[in-house]
């Protein structure tokens, strides 16, 4: 028994080995952001923000690399001609396409992102409005590395019911099924007080068959997210029943959208049952919390959600663009392919239920004027 245990220890000592020192890791550049642009001939121009580790007594170094080639892989390898360190993509946080590259076609570049063993499927995919150099030179008080900042920024925008984000693994699935439409975050760089340049999320880019065909504004994002069950948190702003022109903010605690699709002859109904749990987060001016006011706030919130959903649906129904995964829902329900222009035959039915949960408010809360 002891001999067997000794043999296992000896075998493990040979198999379970790691880096002896910092030497191996110091020969790598760890990518934090990949930006894909195109030149006048539509060949990829690749930009990489990378982190070069140093020994324990030294700080790491930020580097920006640029490479060109007929393919993304060639552009990546051409970068190494001007660097004595090999890039490693295991720590990459974001894959960003410029507006020009997205309009030309992401399918010309995405295969490398899926095939390369170092690239993970968790990073976010985005479209950049503007120049890559401006993005990669942006400095914020929240950190030196743009890739890490974008990763945290897109994690954080999930707290808004109007924001849009999409990891690359979701993009890769959606591009091959149903309507083949994706909505990914749009990034913009602009000046901010106290900052040289700052990165903002500004709506979504509509990608159909891997080509950018339009944009979705932040205002449209809320209706879109409710229809596709993408709301986890956020806010609803509702008119204050006691003070015209003032608002009550409801914090979204939980949201669930159930989808059904029914067909009777040529008529197809897309039914969305939206249930939202909220709590009163802020009151402008003041509010008497009683059954009448709570009912009015709840009904107004329900109407606002319906209006947001119908508004964006009608807009894209008129354009004939199915950005709502209707083809997938139809296939799932009826086990047969829907027509490409199914959205033109759809009647949307939105039923909403907003629940206002009790918090620290009292039934006798009144404003400062003693109402």
TrEMBL record:
Subcellular location, record wording: Membrane
Keyword Transmembrane helix in annotation: no
Lineage: Bacteria, Bacillati, Bacillota, Clostridia, Eubacteriales
Protein name in UniProt: Ger(X)C family spore germination protein
UniProt family annotation: Belongs to the GerABKC lipoprotein family.
Top-rank taxon: Bacteria
Alphabetized UniProt keyword annotations: Germination, Lipoprotein, Membrane, Palmitate, Signal
Positions of the Spore germination GerAC-like C-terminal domain: 202-357
Broad class of where this protein is predominantly found: membrane
GO cellular component, one term: membrane
Ribonucleoprotein is among the record's keywords: no
PROSITE patterns xrefs: PROKAR_LIPOPROTEIN
GO biological process: spore germination
Membrane topology: Lipid-anchor
Gene3D superfamilies membership: Nutrient germinant receptor protein C, domain 3
Domain (Spore germination protein N-terminal) ranges: 22-173
Pfam families per UniProt: Spore_GerAC, Spore_GerAC_N
Organism of this sequence: Clostridium bovifaecis
Coiled coil: none
